[in-house]
## 1
Amino acid sequence: MNIPQFDDEELRLYAEFMLDQLRKTDGFWFLGVENAFSYDAAIKANEEVWHTMGRITARDIRRSFSIKEKGLQGLYRFFRYFPWAMISGYEIDYKDNEIVVSVPHCPSQEARLKKGLGEYGCKRMHFLFFQSIIQELDRGLKVECLFAPPDPHSSDVFCKWRFTMDQEGSSG
């Protein structure tokens, strides 16, 4: 890649720009599949893509940012670099035995609502995505969906996820 030199402010602005491009590409890709084929086809394709990307994203972040920790500590460090945590403003509550991720701002769902399309059922897609992330980081991690569309939710949070270690602990 040919990445130009940026000062700190330019780099921050460029990172924001790239995250916004990622978000828009994801949204328009889904809408394109939905319009060309069907809502169900878009959901199925989305689940397949995100399931694959979870593993790739976890592997790339772990390697790029030298995340050596396993378990909840490794997952917590992963979220620091995870693009969608920045895009959606993840609220991450890390306690001794769990990480709870709340998503107060979901650009995809907000855009659909603004256009009168209604929320799409993203629960399974995100479950598969998070499952593939934790399988790559530490097979001893578990993910549980507390709620996500199509589940009912309050207006200030779209979904909430809990990550824990299974009883046997980290298995690498």
## 2
Amino acid sequence: GFIYNVRTQQSTPLLNDMPVALYDCCVVAKNNYVYVIGGSSRSGIVNTVYRLCFETFEWTTMAPMGIARCVFAAALKDEYIYVFGGINGGRLSSTERYCIYNNTWEDLGDMPKGPRCYHCAISTTGNEIYIVGGCGTRFVDVFDTGPSLTWKTQTYLCDMPEERDYAAAVVVKEKYLVVIGGFDEDDAATA
């Protein structure tokens, strides 16, 4: 891996390689740490979590997820990392949450409109995480990370007009959910 400094526009290789080469994983950053979660290696789909310290550039193996998964979605909310769906032999509906401070995983049950893969998860400024699209779906779901840890049905948030997988999404001005790119139901690339 490498680190790119956006201010100096210089890239430098990481001092230490990640313990295992991965793809189809998710990455989340919190404070001075980068968490690389799940994905696939040459030996198959993994449940591992590796943490890179940005002070020492050393890797640490953290507690593994309950279920190995790749092509899933992850989002950071406060001191928790949430993972949604993915693939492990078949498509997954499961949701898990990782506590950064306790290094523990917790099963949060299944997504109501799962299974999902090749989708995205977007944290909002409140307690919500939006789960957007995925293979064969145009659904937009809302997970409430507050004390109830429940899926919400929002009257103000409707499904996308078409299926999107491999898309990117972001919330802008706490008002707009912008979904860009990906593939539609005909596997045509979209703008």
## 3
Amino acid sequence: MAKAKNIIIIEDNETFSLLVTHYLKNNLGNVQVYVENSGARAIESIKRLKPTIVILDYYLENDLSAKDVMRVINSMDVRPSVVLLSSIKDQAEKDEVMEMGIEKFVPKSNESLYDLIQVIETILSRDQSYGNSGKSRLSISAIIGLISLIIFFLLALYLFIQKG
């Protein structure tokens, strides 16, 4: 069996990162998903794990910005494919970070998780060892998984609002 592909999610919103992680693990085969909530820790993980794909949020509130992370990734000998999963609205900022070598932009929303799977499958299908034809398929289990994740997200949001 082929070695599992590493995917690192760089996202400072814990609820959203759990949602994405759960969805990726349930809908992709032979991947290992890691989450980092800061740019500095993400860079260390990228160097150590040598992921195939990095999923990067533009708005990181902790230490390094998405641009800082991309500068470091661009200086590496072996670069992972980078997908920008973000709610970025400013077109100039988006264009600037995309020009830094980001392969694909996926707008951040609950509905975008299926699009994210398609992007990741396309990237992974370039590597023969993944064993996926790259064709997208929306199965009943994927639909049920997406619905359960949306319910989970809404419940987490409800609980967050109740605390406030």
